[in-house]
Amino acid sequence: MFIKGIFIFLFFNALGFGAIAQKLSVEIIAQPQFTSVLGDYNVFVKESYYSNGPSSTAIAEKKNTFKLAAGIMAEYNFSNHFSAGLGIFYSQQGQQYKDFFQSGTWYDMTASDWTQENRTEGEEIFLSYLKLPLQVNYYSDKEKKICFSLHVGFYLGDLTSYKFVSHLYKDGTAYQNMGTSVMDYTTDSYTTTMGTTTVTTYTTTSSYFPNPSSGSYSGNLDSKPFNSFDVGITSGMGINWILSERFSLFANLTYDRGFIDIKKQDSQVTDQTTTPPPPKYYFWGDSNSNRYIKFYNSLFAAQLGVRMNLK
Question: By residue range, what is the domain housing residue 235?
Fold first, then answer.
């Protein structure tokens, strides 16, 4: 909340200063974007806990992840060619991963025997930020009907919400939901719940939560698995259509790249399903390299907006 207050204070103070100076323009921006989390995410291949084979890891393949952002920018115009902008945006970000398929022999405690199964695991990271970009803009000539622009700067990001969702399926006549794990910011906890299929053993192939034997599992996060803020660079180019002395339309292509590892490696979960003292687990895994792989935010976006000069 403190960081959000700084964002709002800086933005509206810039807005008021520019209005007095009569050199301010205000932009309202919609931003469809492709986002990604840079850094590998490992999934288990044939987990040894309930498997008769060795355990190894494989890198999950990423999917194109489409999200939305929107915001407002106050721009102080030094001349027809140069300006400085300060904005505030709400930005949905994250990463989807392609379903990972594996075939192996798992021990079925109901049948008391080894069974051949195909299993599919899928993950998605949901992140939402309140972002404050500060940038310098160059325009070819604002007095012309059409002009081109470049911008470069940096941003501060305050994490407002996050969610990590994992699904695990096994085959039958069709894929059956074995369980879904949801880690949610609003409660600082996550719950693993089995699906409707009848199984007595539940082996998760996800690397970040422990293996419940059956039913459901719940745990409390001792600390959030993502850092509360992000810092990075922003840059891009665009085209502007001057409609009148006060109004114009613009379309930009922009790229943001974070500098800070958004993963909190030492985040732990306290098991709430056992008697005291409850065991603790590292959220990002105890026994594989996920915990030590750094995550960085990245996005490529189209900015579509309208600009109004306040003079």
Answer: 2-309
